[in-house]
Amino acid sequence: MNYSLTGPFGLAVLLILGACSRKSDDTSGGTDGPNSSSAATVNFVTASGVEMVFLPGGTFKMGYDRGNPDEAPAHTVELSAFAMDKTEVTHAMFAKVQLPNPSHWQDNEANPVERVRWRDAKTYCNERSLLEGLTPCYDEKTKEWDCDYKANGYRLPTEAEWEYACRAGSDQPYSFGNADRLRQYAWHDENARERTHPTAGRKPNRWGIYGLYGNVSEWCEDVYSADYYSKSPGTDPTGPADPGVDVKRVMRGGSWKSSADMCRASFRQGQRTGNTDACFYTDYCGFRCVRRVTADEVAALTKKT
Amino acid sequence: MQPTSTPRFHCLAVLSLLALNAGADEPTLRDQLGGSHFKLVCEGYVDQNWDLFVMNADGSQRENLTHTPDISELYPQASPDGSKISFMVDTGEGREIIRSAWVMNVDGTDRKKIADYARQAFWGPDSKVVAYLPQEYPKFNVIDYFTKGIMFYDLSTGKTTPHPNNENIRHLYNPGFSPNGKWIVATVHAGMGFSHANLLIEAHGDRVINLGIPGCRPTISPDGKFVAWGPGDHEVATAPLDTDADEPKVGDKILQVFDEKNKVYHIDWSPDGKFVSCSCGPNGKGDISQPKTYASASEIVGVYAKGWNIYVVPANAGAVHLDQPDPNALALTTDGESHKESDWFQPKK
To answer: Of A100, A101, A276, which is closest to B284 when you measure between CB atoms?
Structure first.
């Protein structure tokens, strides 16, 4: 069913209501263990034409006690509802907000942008917010472009939001089951031929989100700290405070050059932001956006149609 | 008992004195530059505003050329005949900032705007044409490769014409003509089929040659026989490049200027090709608490770069280390007021 919606800022949103607990064609992988969620996801298209998935809030087990040291301890996290881009931000999406595309590979506008510095990703978020009449989350007048999590605009996902979306209710290293099925879901070092590929070219996870396991790794909002999980708050964690020097930000998900192990849902890495580099050569760094939105807001938008 | 080292010490002391005595007969770098008629123009951030500064080749008699507390002037380029300076002006705020290309006389008079939404103006060898890179999109972005195409502005007619291969030119920065007018040398980032490269672009045709050198910001020597560029964040260098050849190729490095801690950028040739200048300062990402500045890497035009100064080095010095006492390096500025993008010229008499 398709619904044409108009929001408070003239936002026209086309909602494509998925069936409750809509799943991708994947039905055989993963186990609905402790991370089992009753998520009723909703697909919709934003005013600027970007496909997103609404994820109701819930609790999940974040981290992995049998992974790398920085993935432990696994701990329960409760998250508010949010919406996430269905794919990584593509060349076409970047061009739509009139930003210079820094990507190494320029031959397909459906490819994810890469070589994106952390601040460039945040710039995109604000530009897309302005394009759609939303309130930008990032204050560009502050040194680190502080994030207003209450604003209704786009921002980078928190690390917890990213893992919640990637796990899609599974408590296993991959939501679809074993690593031998990874190539069906991700462009990574065994099948990517050392480059990026169109963003929806592999299977989505069970919540209908593409590319979380591969293609490009994705910036998150949080400062990276290897021991953060031992002191992380249980509700809507946003990462440790900015130490001010030698700051790394969290980058999640595998990329075209990642091993299967690096593509695991709980695998963590810290990456320097590239903000002091005129040319940021890391051609596996991309991102996707999220937006804070409640189930009531989605319902209200639905009623207006 | 250990054998004494006294005889060896005496020998070294005598050699040192001889060396000092020999050095006393040779003019210092400051002396050499002090006798020059050349000048340099650069940008600087003083009293919360960008202005252009002109100084002698030894750094003496530095003057604020523009003196415009409400206008930000940036990226000066002197015409080859030493009569005019092109520069950029930023007006407005945030996404509405408009960067414009201007020209004026070297004494700061007769300012004239030649284009809005323009980047990095540069001079044709006859000093009659000012070229510039149009902005990729109207909405402002500080990044240096935010450009699309090349335009040529004729100072005598006021007419602007596009490069014949304009549709295929994208994401260039730091352009400059070869003295023979045949080529435009520039860096491309994520454009024209290149991930990142330093290019020779035929000035009036569609040939494009990848110079095959890493880094950025190439500039051709006044005789057209050498290229200077920045191979990395902490080095600028020169090497042979015959721009009169059918297939110009870059040879082995001749000069390398290093600083292991600070960044070294923006190399430029003196009019006689005997010296180069460069900017050097700490790594950084700007300080947007300073008005009219941007958040990006320190070397980018308009980014506040505290601690950055202009240095001069002889072009035949071999290897020079700015982070060590070196007789082959002279700091022309020492106040660190975001002095960047120096350009040499010989004032027209």
So the answer is: A276
